[in-house]
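Hey,

Quick one before I head out. I ran the complex with NAP overnight. Inputs first:
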Amino acid sequence: MCCEKQEIDLTGKTIVLTGATSGIGFASVKKLASSGAYVIGVGRSETRNQKALEGIQNAFPNAHVDYLFADLASQDQVKKLAEDIKVLLQGHEINAVDVLVNNAGIYLEKKQTTKEGIEQTFAVNHLAAFLLSHELMPLLQASNQGRIITVSSYSHRNTPLIINRLDNPWPYIGLLAYKRSKLCNILFSYEFNRRHDNKVTAIALDPGLVDTSIASKGSNGISDWVWRLRRKDGESPDVPAESIAYLAGVENLDTSHGYFYRNCDPETPSIKARSEDLAEKLWQCSCELTNIIW
Ligand SMILES: NC(=O)c1ccc[n+]([C@@H]2O[C@H](COP(=O)([O-])OP(=O)(O)OC[C@H]3O[C@@H](n4cnc5c(N)ncnc54)[C@H](OP(=O)(O)O)[C@@H]3O)[C@@H](O)[C@H]2O)c1
């Protein structure tokens, strides 16, 4: 894996990372901060934010890390988060975000909807990443080398996607909802790069199978049981944390193949994930569902 060949120095970089309280996100905050970056971690619980911050400060006393609260299932809170980030950066006299890592993600065995009436897996895993990227665009464009890294998955493959049932899929199958949202992450990244000059680059990342609690949090039934068996074969979250640090900091990111990475190596996503037509429709639909023009 190429990330092992190169120690990345992130000194001077400002990185916003969602889902920073556990699993891949928590490991990534430690890796990014210990590599010199100023990291703003985002979590949905003040208590878990505080615990994560203390864990990082104990391990790396010189780490420059702040945590902000936002439940990304709420579009109002995503917008407020962007405002809170701007205020925090002004306080530090920082005028750019170099890297946004859209890492927060959920798996829900049973269907839940947000207060906007949107199916929650789609809302958190895709729409929140879409909206936060939009809200932080001026700060990302102020960077010399802005990047948006969205944590997707191998599971995007062999996934049906019906555009007019995105926000409220029927019938609801938790695994399918999850796979669809991870396909959306890649479609978003490709479409972003089609629509923007290369001052900001969007990359989707497959972190591989990782030993975290993700599927157990949204289930106390069969999915929890299956996941507890499956995660035993997963890598430590420190492995994708290395990849995120690599993608955040490598000078000449190879995008000649496209905008999908499996850990530190470029990989070709599914044919559907590269569909321009589907990506364009997803973009339009995401704008409508978040009430933005982009
Ligand atoms: N584990 C794997 O094998 C694997 C494979 C492929 C892709 N991924 C992707 O990797 C990413 C990280 O997942 P993980 O495996 O590290 O799972 P995890 O430990 O459950 O981490 C998910 C993070 O997202 C946060 N989060 C969930 N819902 C949120 C919301 N509404 N608002 C704000 N934050 C929220 C969680 O907060 P709490 O701490 O409060 O729960 C947690 O910090 C996800 O996008 C997932 O799809 C994981």
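The first strand starts at residue 14 and ends at 18.

Talk tomorrow,
K.
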